[in-house]
Design goal:
- By secondary structure, the chain is mainly alpha-helical.
- The protein has 2 domains: 9-55; 56-132, Winged helix-like DNA-binding domain superfamily/Winged helix DNA-binding domain (Arc Repressor Mutant, subunit A).
- Helices cover 62% and strands 6% of the residues.
- The longest helix has 28 residues, at 25-52.
- It is elongated, with a radius of gyration of 20 Å.
């Protein structure tokens, strides 16, 4: 579907009505909530990628450039180590990250963000703040409430303690 084409009716509401009509009324609200969160995630990712693409970044690469303890990148990003390696590989090719031997053991490898990488991360953050994070169609109270609700769900799912 084209991003600018607006539907007359919310398809998730229609699905919830159909769920109830088929005898699944007790699950209709949950289905609508899950489907809504998944759709909003798609919209937010599209918006973030639209801002980052002209800078040669994906959201995963942007997150790697942000100041995280080096050994904790995979854990903090909550992605598979291979995905972190791929992001670091690309950032290294582009001159935004440098790998060095871990001085603690000589076997491990550390990735350090270069000056060019820090400058790119700063430009990306300014753009994301202006075009995505500060442009959400919710006021601050609603955003804080949404965050609390989603945080509670993430904690209940074992995302963190």
């Amino acid at each position: 579907m084209a991003p600018n084409r607006r539907l007359r009716r919310d398809p998730i509401e229609v699905a919830a009505e159909n769920w109830s009509a088929r005898g699944w009324k007790d699950a209709a609200a949950g289905m609508a909530a899950v489907t809504s969160v998944m759709r909003v995630q798609q919209i937010m990712l599209r918006d973030v990628e639209t801002v980052l693409k002209p800078l040669g970044l994906t959201f995963a690469r942007y997150e790697v450039l942000m100041p995280l303890p080096v050994g904790k990148v995979g854990e903090r990003l909550q992605v598979h180590p291979a995905s972190v390696t791929n992001a670091v590989d690309r950032l290294e090719r582009d001159g935004h990250v440098e790998r060095t031997a871990n001085p603690a053991d000589g076997r491990g490898v550390l990735a350090e963000v270069t000056d060019a990488g820090r400058a790119l991360a700063e430009r990306a953050t300014v753009a994301l703040n202006a075009e995505v994070f500060s442009a959400l169609p919710l006021d601050e109270r609603e955003l804080r409430s949404l965050h609390r609700i989603l945080r509670r769900m993430r904690r209940a799912s074992g995302d963190f303690e």
